Amino acid sequence: MQKMTQNKLSRRDFILRCTKAGISAAAAAAMAGWLYEADPAKISPQSGNIVEAMNYSIPPIAGKTMSVVTGSNRPATVTKAIELLGGMERFVRPGENVLLKPNAGFAMPPRICATTHPELIAQVTKLCFQAGAKKVFITDNPINDPKSCFELSQIASAAQKNGAEILLPRPDYFKPITLKGAELINNWPMLYAPLKKVDKVIGIAIVKDHRRSIASMSMKNWYGLLGGNRSIFHQDINKIIVELAMLIRPTLVILDGTETMISNGPTGGSESDLKQTDTMIVSCDQVAADSFGASLLGLKPQDLPYLVKAESLGLGTTDYQSLEPLYAQSKA
Amino acid sequence: MPEAINRNRTHTIISYVILFVLIIIFIAIITKQKHYYVPAAPIAEKTTAETPKTQAWLNPQLFGADLEPANEVENYNAANLYEKIDGKADLYLENEFVSLQCRRYSSKQSQQEWAEVYLYDMAKARNAFAVYSGQKRSKSQPLGWAQFGYKTKDAVYSASGNFYFEIILSSDANQLLQAAESAARQLTGFASKEPSEPFAISFFPKDNFVFDSLKLIKEDAFGCADMKNIFTAAYSVSGNDLTVFIADTPDSNSAQVLFDKYHNFLTENGGTEPANNIDIPGSKAVELFGTTDIIFRYENYFAGVRGSGPIGDLNNLAVLFKNSLADAKNDTK
Lengths: 332, 333
Hints:
Radius of gyration of chain A: 26 Å
Number of domains of chain B: 2
Shape of chain A: elongated
Number of helices of chain A: 12
CATH superfamily of the largest domain in chain A: LarA, N-terminal domain
Distance between the termini of chain B: 100 Å
CATH class of the largest domain in chain A: Alpha Beta
Largest sheet of chain A: 9 strands, mixed
Structural class of chain B: alpha+beta
Radius of gyration of chain B: 30 Å
Largest interface: A-B, 56 and 45 residues
Oligomer: heterodimer
Order of helices and strands of chain B: HEEHHEEHEEEEHEEEHEEEH
């Protein structure tokens, strides 16, 4: 009898426990409701960080701003072009972390030249390590599935073989950015974390025809740092290219014009879209690099509104001859 | 009494476990929400709600025994076409693009050898032809079996009915190209069975036609601002290169308006009408800077022949064209 009494729950206890349970459930639900935010743009504690520019440039040396080397062997031409500007040691100090930003936008084989050539990635990585770089990172936020893009373009294997680390775009790498003086880069998600990891940034792009922007080169290459539904920027492509150049002041840009995609860009699809132009451009001035690159597509800088605008904002010069580029021919 | 103590202890332990789980959930929610991410792609749905019937065309057997699918069929619509082809999307979107299906096929021997098929539904045959002709590669060979098709050493391109497709290859291996051509043939077969309204270029005469010379001039054809969306084809007659052209207008009035505008354009720029009779009632001939245009209207079509050859040859080709047009229209009635 005593046992039964002990096991029995009194009415008072029952009501008390039910009330406690109800209050707990209601509190949990209220907490969930309080934490829930349907609009992801509002939930970041870092949303809308205002930045002026992300400056990775180095002090200029007159007469050593731009080099152009002709030849078909990419590792040889890029090595020579960097050597003419003072060697990679001028750009990368021992112990520094370096970010290479290729164009890895498409899941295409390197042969088609829609993406940065893996030989170039391999060689620039080697040069960075030879200069004493602690780490070399490679990142891009491609149009197609990132893993497929890095693998099929063979950028991943080139990086792996030479000790560089691929940073595939991850949710926590993105951060909304507002660029001072910009209209489009306003609380817009950018591939930010890889940029914050490093001391130097090197853009490695290819010269391509582009149906919307006429040409895709060094400045357009930063488009791969945008997150979000960036296709809306195609309506204002010249402005976004200029704003990206305002945002990223690279240490160096390498513009590969070994094979230029002269038609059906930016994807191409066949070697028939390519023209052998055997030119490697390396420059501390991305506007100057693209102005030279435009000539490989039979264009003048004035044909590309974003170059004209970038120059007017002091981001570089379209008159690349004024920089007295160093020319050479690769014997390789 | 000890039993009651045990029971209370059990309840306490269970309570702590529940609290612990709630704390874990709380931390997980906070961590998840802290990470802001709006990736490049998933704003628009990659897969359309309704599976397009063309998806079945990209079947596992499309490339025969040597290649197998490396992924599922990807579906794109007008909202997310940029995600697949970036800036080139404009060309398709300007031409009534409906959908794109893509699939990659890999060699069973080596994953490095692959082919990717891009199958575009362009709603109308004229649109499919527009995107086909707008991207024509110069270093290419025609596909002998296709009305509109060519291959480069590493890709195959073709338009059939309302569809345009590309097969991009990972290398220029001949075996891969042969497999791609065979797949293209199958796709052409599927596409040709789909209903598609006939369009202007079906009416071009077959004799003396220069293979693969068809073009669509979107604007300013022959220097005239009013001449838009003009289909042209080259003909070789007695050693002279002549051009046949046609515009498909909404109705016969529009065709007449275009006829008058082009005629005015020629005469206002100094064109003169030769004395020769043209054997097409209602037609006109104008000679300007050594090139003669013979223009005429048939129902809702405005058409013509132009070139610097003898006017007799131009007249004969114009008559042939007019008859071909009339025959084709009668067949479709």
